[in-house]
Each structure stands twice: as C-alpha cells, then as structure tokens.
Amino acid sequence: MTSLENKKNRALKMMLWFGIGSLIMTFAGLTSAFIVSKNREDWVDNFDIPEAFYLSLFLIIGSSISLIFARKPLMRNEKNIVSGLILSTIILGVLFIIFQFVGFNQIMSNGYHFTGPTSTINSSFIFLIAFVHVLHVIVGLIALIVVFIKNLKGAYHKNNVTGFELASIFWHFVDILWIYLFIFLVFFG
Questions:
Q1: In a domain? residue 21
Q2: DSSP-derived 3-state class of residue 160
C-alpha cells in the first residue's frame, strides 16, 4: 500500500470517527432530554419497554458477532465465507429493524402513540430515539450491502480492507448504541 493510500485510509477513518462523535452527541442530547422530561405531568411511571425490543437487542448483537467472525476469513482471502458472514449480518440487521417496528406496534397496542391525544412524553421519546437509531441502522445496512457486493467482486483482500473496516466500525457503533439505548430505556423509561 502506498503512502498516499495510507493517508487516504486514515482520512476516511478520521471522518467516520468525527461522524460517530456527532452521533454520540445527538443521542446524548436525546437521552438527556428524556431524563429532564421525567418531571412533566404527562410522564407515565413504569412504562414498559416492548418485548420486541428485547429480541431486537439479541439480533443486533448477533449481527455484530457475525461481522467480527468475517474478519479472519477476509485476511485469508476466503471470499465465500466472508460473503456468507456479511450476508448473515445484513439479514440480522433487517430482522432488527422489523422487530423495532413490531415494538412500535406493541407500544401502540398498549394505547400510546408518537403524537396526539394518546401520546405521552415517554412514548414520544421512545418512538423518536428508536426511530432515529433505526435510520442509522439503515445507513449501516447500505454500507454492508456495498461491502457485500464489492466482496463478491473480489475487491477485498488482506492488503485492501478499508471499506470493510469502515462499514464494520459503523455497524459495531450502531450495535453498541442500541445496547446503551436499550439499557437506558429499561432503567430510565
């Protein structure tokens, strides 16, 4: 790898980390606003987190594990194994999104909505936080689909893993972010 390629790769990673930093600040702001809002009159004590959110937690953790397992075969140029593991990560990510929407439906079946007369500050924040996270999961899935396609074409090998690494870093970030958000919602919701 040339010096110019190394500089480009470092710049790409630095831009990704700056983006992740801004996302951390965004979700820190949302969760801080959630805590501050507990003093409002329309706050519902003991608001139950939907059961589907529990399952989605395991799905996204599983997706990160399958992506971690893809790294070693990538370094050994085992394209088919890497493709299978990336595809399993994508499938688990899609299932995560599906179960987020199942969770939204569970909240609504309990009589709470995002807005309107049947909304509460709890339900509005939970919908907002989870939906904004889902949007970032979709971005991660797009990146993984690009990596999957490029891997099928043989673009990645042990001397060229930057695209895989960037997508992996972002995917693991959205995974860790959901773990944080889930724990936050369970203990502060």
A1: yes
A2: strand
Q: Which residues contact 82 (CB under 8 A, 6 or more apart)?
A: 70, 73, 74, 151, 156
- Structure tokens belonging to residue 104: 């939204």
User: What stretch of H or E contains 8?
Assistant: helix 3-36
Closest by CA position to 128, among listed 139, 113, 140, 142: 113
The answer, yes or no, to whether residue 1 has pLDDT greater than 70, is no
Q: Is the pTM of this model over 0.90?
A: yes
- Identify whether 63 is part of a domain: yes
What pairs with residue 119 in β-bridges? 113
For residue 177 the two structure tokens come to 């972010």
Residue that has been written with the tokens 């724990």 in this structure? 183
Q: Which domain holds residue 56?
A: 3-40+51-188
CATH code of the domain containing 173: 1.20.120.80
Model confidence pLDDT, tens digit, residues 33-68: 999 998 888 788 878 899 999 999 999 999 999 999
| In a domain? residue 122 | yes
Instruction: Specify the number of domains making up the chain.
Output: 1
* Measured distance CA(148)–CA(90) in Å, rounded: 9
Helix then strand then coil, % of the chain, to nearest 5? 80, 0, 15
Between the alpha carbon of residue 130 and those of residues 39, 114, 125, 143, 161, the distances in Å are 22, 11, 8, 20, 31
